[in-house]
Here is the input.
Amino acid sequence: MMQNLEINFKQIDKIKKITKEEKNFRIKNLESFKASGFPNKRQEDWKFTDFKSIVDSNFKELDAQRVSSNINKIDLLKNFEHNYVLLVNGNLHSSNFDYEEKSKIRINNYDKSIDYEISKNPLICLNHALAENGYSLEIDKNYKFKKVLVIYNLFTKDIKNKILNNKNKIKINENSELHVIEYTINESKSKFINNVYENIILEKNSKFKNLFMQNNKSDGFFHKFIKNKLSLNADISNLIFSSGLKFNKIDIECDLVEENSKCNILSALFLKKNEHQEIKTLVNHLAPNCKSNQKIKKVLSSGSKGVYQGKIYVKDIAQKTDAYQLSKALLLDDNAEFNSKPELEIYADDVKCSHGSSSGNIDQDSLYYLMTRGLSRKDSSKLLIKGFLNEVIEFIKNPSIKKFIETNLEYQINEY
Amino acid sequence: MLEIKNLQASINNKTILKGLNLTIKPGELHAIMGPNGSGKSTLANVLSGKSGYEISGDVNYEGKSLKKVSVEERAQRGIFLAFQYPLEIPGVNTNNFLKTSLNSIRKSKGKKELDTLTFLKLVKEKASELGINEKILSRQLNVGFSGGEKKKNEILQMKILDPNLSILDETDSGLDIDALKTIASGVNSSRDSKKSFLVITHYQRLLEYIKPDFVHVLSNGKIIKTGCGELAEELEKTGYQKLN
Ligand SMILES: Nc1ncnc2c1ncn2[C@@H]1O[C@H](COP(=O)(O)OP(=O)(O)OP(=O)(O)O)[C@@H](O)[C@H]1O
Ligand SMILES: [Mg+2]
Here is the structure.
């Protein structure tokens, strides 16, 4: 049992330059977290995962003190030209926007706003109580990024038993466009928790692509909540390719607040032994003529677990909603587990909504067909696995980024 | 090349092949005809090494028993099956698959793998020989291919992999008359004194273009009659009923 999560109100006292309102906000959230503790299956949002017992069995102690880690340099990706932001253990370390008009871009340490409601998710409360760092990025209106922005999310060796709470914000103003690759690099060989709250605001006619990938396996436990808010004609795509982590939950809430906004949530994952990957979504259609599309594909090998909880909510005024949701799992073994809970809650009558979920094994006839062409069983399986995930990868239009993701996934699959 | 002695095969407690004998020598082309459900595809599957069948009897290929030889090893040793119903494999690029397949087979023979450029040249050549629109080769394997395109793709694979024993399971079904001719000439140009063929068909028409050395009638799991090209013509007129 874990007893030593060192959080107390004193810790909040240590935060420098804190207003009374902020302090109250933090204390309120801390109390809320303390009342429930880490989430377990009794919480709706954690239906398939007892995070509390995962924490208990992996940590004897947890330290929520801020870490300031120093690094010398990192190896930047050479696969394509890009701007970058470097985060070290969640802290904003440095940034480079040499490909862009710098006057259009503002990047700062995390945003101190406290206008968040108390969440039912204890990890969000914990974040609100303790987060002291992260980044805040704002793009002026009428500016389209020329190159992709890579956010290097580096975790250093010295974060054993830490729980890092970070808060990020991206705001894209009218008619602007940004493409981000969040690239997690794990140097830590020991266990830690990273708990992130991300706030993404898309103003009128803006476009945002957000792609998640990591470079290697890690013993990190990752929880990330992303709140997206889209105005008129705004368009967001989330592409999730990050596996190889002990625990990874991405919780995306997307509010389509104004007409003609679009939300894509796509994922292609390959999970191995002792890996847990969870995607939870809530797409709120709050205005007419909005479109959402979710496609989650997971390949689960022996001893891995995948979860998809996806909900589409359509408000009464949100006529002509077009909402689609599909999750598919390919189980390579009887010891793999996939849980899926698709949900629709619809109050408008003129809508097009569909959802589906399926899980199955590799098709034996397809395997046989490929083997009659001289491929070994293993190579045939790998080809079918790649084929299964390909549908999502096809969504990436930039050839060098696509190649980069493909190579990375292939590398994971080849280890199978 | 191939020697089958008293082959019996059953699946799900149903005996399908009931003591089948067949010998194919190098350079020979044998045709098998027979009513629906007589076991033609089953024979093809068993020869390819498909699992799930309970098998007795002997099958020797190039002088060695195939009993414990896996599907992929049979393919690597030069047995090729053109499927009656080629499978659609979503997400797998056709060219990519063809290259992987050819290189697996080359590797098993200790040959150097082909690089992409050399490979694409080879495919281009073979595809145009068979009147295949190259565009379909950059699509997903058989997905959305027309019936005829699927069959042509099977023969393209045969041409690329260059097997010793080709088993064609109703490759002619569903082909238009021009496609039938190109496929027949594709088969004919592969024939030589070392390569053997087992061609399963319902139609004598194909055998006008591909001249068989022998024609067999398979009925109820057994070969009940063997003859030369004329047997096919005779069957075309009389049907299978009279043979029993
Ligand atoms: N897996 C199986 N389980 C049970 N019965 C099977 C199975 N596979 C084939 N059969 C049966 O075995 C018989 C022979 O099938 P097969 O496909 O070999 O026939 P065929 O000669 O190729 O017919 P066609 O000319 O229609 O292609 C059929 O009656 C079929 O229903
Ligand atoms: Mg058949």
Summary: Helices of chain B lie at 40-48, 71-76, 94-108, 116-129, 147-161, 177-190, 204-209, 229-238. Chain B has eight helices and twelve strands. The first strand of chain B starts at residue 2 and ends at 11. The two ends of chain B are 30 Å apart (CA to CA).
